[in-house]
Amino acid sequence: MNFKNILAACCCVWLFGCAQDMNTASSAESDTATYPKSVLGLYTYGHEVSVFEPCGQSFAWWMSGAENVMQPLIAASTAWMDKKQQPYQPVLARLVVGKPVKATEGFPADYDGAVTVEKIEALFADQQVCPANV
């Protein structure tokens, strides 16, 4: 076996070893955390948008859930849209979410993962930013 074949084989092994499982979200947190879990962050609703950005993190999840769970979040975000006369207004919430999965199609595929909201623990309808200490 010559040097090129050995190098090619090593590269293939390295690449396959580094590949991520396509069924889980790309954030490192989703790989190590226990779910369902409680997460504080900003929920934003709008035309073709249902997104949650956990406070202190650099990723965003597409959100879905039962209508009775999602409706208070949608109403709070919509109230800010009406007040500010601008679309896509965030609202602070602490949500219990399921494990993120990486969507492969549709709008959810544009985000770091898709999660299901299981429960709203707290909705801070008067707040649009994460606390500074998070």
UniProtKB/TrEMBL annotation:
Matching PROSITE patterns, A to Z?
PROKAR_LIPOPROTEIN
Q: Does the keyword Signal apply?
A: yes
The superkingdom listed in its UniProt entry is Bacteria
The beginning of the lineage is: Bacteria, Pseudomonadati, Pseudomonadota, Betaproteobacteria, Neisseriales
UniProt entry tagged with the keyword Signal: yes
Signal peptide extent: 1-19
Source organism of the structure: Neisseria zalophi
Q: What is this protein called?
A: NlpE C-terminal OB domain-containing protein
Q: Which UniProt keywords apply?
A: Signal
